[in-house]
Specification:
single chain; 144 residues; alpha+beta; four-stranded antiparallel sheet; 9 strands; 32% helix
Length: 144
């Protein structure tokens, strides 16, 4: 129960932070583990949540994500990909911004969210690991 509560809290923190900025679209679909950072917080991507300027999405080896922008563009990230959304991006820009995740630096994509350097890398890697454990522990739980 505590794990579920922590997961929900992390998702809410990202969602509340996102509400303070203008929405560029919404998270349309999430499969598996997908992590999102708004520059100050990190959490799991949740369908229906707003997309804001500077948000970074990272899919795990089991994750995929579809973003629906306000201008009608749908962009899908496959497993082990990342993208940072900027407010001035066209649909083509957004698609071209998708990158493969560097598995040798797990969590490094979020290093700048926590001040950069090795501390950011360690914190990012730890948070992705914890998110993976929470997802794995809850994926076969009956939701009644």
């Amino acid at each position: 129960m505590l794990r579920k509560l922590l997961c929900v809290f992390a998702a809410l923190a990202v969602a509340v932070s996102a509400l303070a900025q203008a929405s560029l679209g919404t998270i349309a679909n999430v499969q598996g583990l997908v992590t999102v950072s708004d520059g100050t917080t990190i959490g799991n991507a949740v369908p229906g949540s707003p997309i804001t300027d500077g948000m970074q999405f990272v899919t795990s080896s089991t994750g995929s994500l579809t973003l629906q922008t306000a201008n009608g563009c749908a962009v899908t990230l496959k497993p082990n990909q990342t993208v940072t959304v900027q407010k001035n991006m066209t649909c083509d820009d957004l698609r071209l911004a998708i990158r493969a995740v560097d598995n040798d630096a797990a969590g490094g994509v979020f290093a700048n969210a926590f001040g950069g350097g090795n501390n950011g890398l360690l914190i990012g890697a730890g948070l992705i690991l914890v998110g993976g454990f929470i997802y794995d522990a809850n994926r076969n739980v009956s939701h009644q």
